[in-house]
Amino acid sequence: MAVMAGSAQQTSRPPNMVLANDRLELTIQQTGGTFSKLILRDGEPVSPLATIGHFLALDGFGAPSDEERAAGMPFHGEASKQVVKVIGSQNSGPVRSIILETLLPLVQETLTRTIEMVDSENVVYITSDLQSGLAADRPISWAEHATIGPPFLEKGKTVVDMPALNCRVRPFKPGPIPGRLAYERDFQWPLAPTKDNSQADLRLVPDNNYLDLASCQMDPKRNLAFVTALHLDKHLLFGYVFRRQDYPWLMSWMNYTGDTRAARGMEFSTQPFDVSHQETVAMSPLFGTPTFRWLPAKAKLQTRFLMFYARVPEGFSRIDDIVLEGGNMTIVDRSGKRLVLPASRGL
To answer: Least buried of 39, 105, 231, 310, by fewest C-beta within 10 Å?
Structure first.
């Protein structure tokens, strides 16, 4: 069902929305259409999402250029700051849905986001249509800024997997906590070079507190890519499946603060790093993969991805593959075990 929770009179923020079926319950903020909470309805209500949730960085990812900033462009673009408009919903029947519209006045774009659930499925289907109002082609910056956080994110108990190949550590200015990775170094996922000439396995949450950023190329041989976060003790698996042509990059924001602010970004996007349009275009291609995507004049782009959350069998430790076929999602673990989830609407 799609229902409103709270009211504008009770809080200074617009009310949240809830989309649910018999397996999952997803809370969506009206500001930005951010996914702020996802829980399984048949057990302990542990949401994998961090405090900042999963928001959309559009049309900008990271800091704007000086000229964009002077023109009013905020960090991570306009989409996450705009109040979305509900333009349609389906509250009954086997398929529940809500359709959101966001106007981006600075870049003259309109985003329509359709979020769907099907009864007896642990999957959320998200389809996005971006319409340009400009009479000129332009490069766009689009990142699904997905983050996991405590209590799901836990030292020694949460691992992240993806079909990544070539990666690069992002240059990063010193912050409140140190970084452990060697800046501007290339590596093969998941072993990244560290400042002490060692290697760090980026699948794992370290024991110490660090702040690092690294971006990886999704395997160009794949049509579909994925990223998962597995809690080894709770046997809970959260993740995304997406078309590689839509999101050929995934940036790992590793904000390991050691407290409730901790977050692990699993940010799949059109570009490697959270930098300005100018910097993004200038670095293309990286590892033979384009670092930006065109939005043609007066045209529309569509992207689609799946978000899922489910319990997995004991013994799951490393996700090697996810296959969508025949209305099912088959999750393959390094142990040889498999989990098959219904995913009737596919990609």
So the answer is: 105
Domains of the chain: 2-342 (2.70.98.10)
Residue 78, C-beta contacts closer than 8 angstroms, at least 6 positions apart: 58, 59, 60, 104, 105, 106, 107
**Closest to 165 in 3D by CA, of 248, 242, 241:** 248
Report how far residue 238's alpha carbon sits from residue 310's, in angstroms, rounded to the nearest whole number: 7
- Give the integer Cα–Cα distance in Å for 141 and 58: 6
CA dist 286 and 336 (Å) reads 34
pLDDT in tens, the chain (347 residues): 455 454 444 456 778 999 999 999 999 999 999 999 999 998 878 999 999 999 999 999 999 999 999 999 999 999 999 999 999 999 888 999 999 999 999 999 999 999 999 999 999 999 999 999 999 999 999 999 999 999 999 999 999 999 999 999 998 766 778 899 999 999 999 999 999 999 999 999 999 999 999 999 999 999 999 999 999 999 999 999 999 999 999 999 999 999 999 999 999 999 999 999 999 999 999 999 999 999 999 999 999 999 999 999 999 999 999 999 999 999 999 999 999 999 999 99
Strand, coil or helix: 146:
coil
- Compute the distance between CA of residue 238 and CA of residue 151 in angstroms, rounded to an integer: 13
Model-level pTM? 0.95
